[in-house]
Amino acid sequence: YVWYRGRIRSSKLPPGPRPLPLIGNVHQLPLKDQHKTFAEWGREYGDLIYLRIFATPVLVVHSLSAARELLEGKNSVTSDRPHMVFVREFLGYDSCFPFIPYGEVWRRQRKWVHTALETKESLASYSRSQRRAVHALLSDLLNEPERYSQHLIRRYMAAMMMVIVYGHTMTSKDDAFVRTAEEAMGGTAKLGDIASSLVDFLPILRHLPSWIPGMGFKRKIPQVRQLVQKTMDEPFEMARKAMIDGHDQSYFVAKIISSQSEGRLLQPDQLLLKYAAGALYIAAVDTTATTLSTFLLAMVLHPEVLRKAQAEIDRVVGGTRLPNVEDRASLPYVDCIIKEVYRCAFPFLGIPHAMSRDEVLRGHNIARGTVIVANLWAMTQDSTLYPEPETFRPERFQEMDSHTAEQADPRKFIFGFGRRICPGRHFADMNIWLTISSIIAAFDISKARDAEGNEIMPQMSFTSGLVSFPDPFECDIRPRTARTRHLISQLSENPA
Ligand code: HEM
Fold it and tell me: Are residues 42 and 175 in the same domain?
């Protein structure tokens, strides 16, 4: 009877590679670049691929249409998160709303973030801080071009988020809050390999001692956990005190506290706000930094694209100032570059969703607790929307009719789906546009040369991990003219 029931059930499941007893499909998952293996399976099995990782059912969504149907159309059942033992229990991100189940606590944090990041007025209120940060980045690129790297770009993003979330202006390049956060995020990324994420699927592993092979990562957990705790606590405490002392109140933490009755938060809400603020900082820095690094890499590899964009910007702003958001509609080619960067950068593997109850999806019985992985990478490589998807070619968006261009805009999916869609998407896009258009207007970017004067040709290749960065590359960045050099120096001396 059990065999018979099992057959009936599995006949209603989507297809997928054959699992082994007990371990399921674990043996077929590579240690790196799982999204590429998922994409191969998608070509073989179709839009929905069913896997089992130990006892946990996993549904991989291969196409954009299926992702929209399931994660947007059925968002009342597909907005949960799986229980993330590793990040929540081990590393202490336990009240960070990106990782918690769908429910009241998530709703409360998400509502605060909505008012702070998703309304027109709130977005407009950050434009000054964003402009200032971009000017500081341009000045750093002018003075230390050889250190352009992810380090410089991450510091720029970190500085901006410190102001916007905590009202804290970095006064030194070695800011203590930023250093701690960098160490916490670096430690999280290093520990978050396949061995540690298996704990999410086989929670019993959490009880194994660290001397057992594969469990060595557990020895480093206390140190990273402490750093995560400090990242959440210290800037929040500083921001709260600064608010009580009556300083500038335009930052996230102050805005939320002052919007509460009597301008005070109850103790449990204080904890939630602290984690919501920490989540914003962490979610913003690496995702934006990798997008900007990929832009630089693409410009090194495609100088003709950079020249075309510079000509477009010169026609609109005339080399006398930097572009601003009001110029965006007049700079369609720059917008195409940004879309192509989003498509190729593919900064973020996404966070899995989970089913909150049993449901029939596309005729398949999908059980409560099934983990849903939207393979965003496969969507960026869909050759029916993006012919020759491995080629960086911003013109592809100009050649589409308006309906297809709308469908193919990567901003429609790289920020996720449904109720869990990235709340920072408008903020991120505005920021990325401002930064990229300013760099194009101000700098020439080309290949670095080795000691013999030969050009060093970088590769468009990426690291593996939750947030994927371009592999380190060298490039040559210099101001386009003496006039742009002067303009940047002036802007950094007289901040906007
Ligand atoms: C290029 C930049 C960015 C990309 C590609 C990106 C992408 C994503 C994706 C794919 C998700 C998961 C959505 C889902 O579960 O369906 C997400 C979630 C999230 N993002 Fe972003 N993001 C970016 C920048 C930002 C920024 C700048 C912020 C904050 C200012 C931010 C805050 C968040 C938060 C808080 C979540 C969790 C949402 C939730 O679980 O309710 N992100 N992001």
Answer: no
Is the distance from CB of 424 to CB of 116 less than 8 angstroms?
A: no
Interstrand relation of 371-374 and 359-361 (parallel, antiparallel or unpaired): unpaired
**ipTM (interface predicted TM):** 0.99
Instruction: Determine if ligand 1 sits within 6 Å of the CB of residue 85.
Output: no
Phi and psi at residue 24, to the nearest 5° = 70, -125
Phi, psi torsion values for 249, nearest 5 degrees: -120, 25
- Which of 415, 426, 427 to mutate to test ligand 1, by most ligand atoms within 8 A of the CB atom? 415
Q: Is the dihedral of CA 327, 333, 334, 336 positive or negative?
A: positive
Alpha-helix runs per DSSP H in 118-220: 120-125, 127-143, 153-166, 176-191, 194-201
Distance 404 CA to ligand 1 centre (A): 25
pLDDT tens for the 496 residues of the chain, in order: 666 555 555 568 999 999 998 899 999 988 778 899 999 999 999 999 999 998 899 999 999 999 999 999 999 999 999 988 888 988 999 899 999 999 999 999 999 999 999 888 889 988 888 998 999 899 989 887 776 666 678 888 999 999 999 999 988 878 999 999 999 998 888 777 655 677 788 777 777 787 877 777 788 889 999 999 999 999 999 998 888 777 677 899 999 998 887 767 777 889 999 999 999 999 999 899 999 999 999 999 999 999 999 999 999 998 789 999 999 999 999 999 999 999 998 656 779 999 999 999 999 999 999 999 999 999 999 999 999 999 999 999 999 999 999 999 999 999 999 999 999 999 999 999 999 999 999 999 999 998 898 999 998 888 877 778 888 898 999 999 999 999 998 887 766 5
**Domain of 293: which CATH number?**
1.10.630.10
What is the count of structural domains for the chain? 2
Domain that holds residue 370: 1-93+349-380
Distance from Cα 256 to the centre of ligand 1, integer Å: 20
Q: How far apart are CA 438 and CA 477, in angstroms?
A: 13
- Taking the centre of ligand 1 as the mean of its atom positions, its distance from the CA of residue 414, in whole angstroms, is 9
Domain of 63: which CATH number? Answer: 3.30.43.20
Residue 422 annotated as part of some ligand binding site: yes
Q: 96: Cβ below 6 Å to ligand 1?
A: no
Of 59, 100, 232, 422, best ligand 1 pocket probe by most atoms within 8 Å of the beta carbon = 422
**Same domain for 268 and 395:** yes
- For residue 261, the one-letter residue type is S
Q: Of all atoms in ligand 1, which is nearest to the CA of residue 374?
A: 16
The Å distance, Cα 111 to ligand 1 centre, comes to 15
Distance 287 CA to ligand 1 centre (A): 8
pTM of the shown model: 0.93
262 with 163, same domain: the answer is: yes
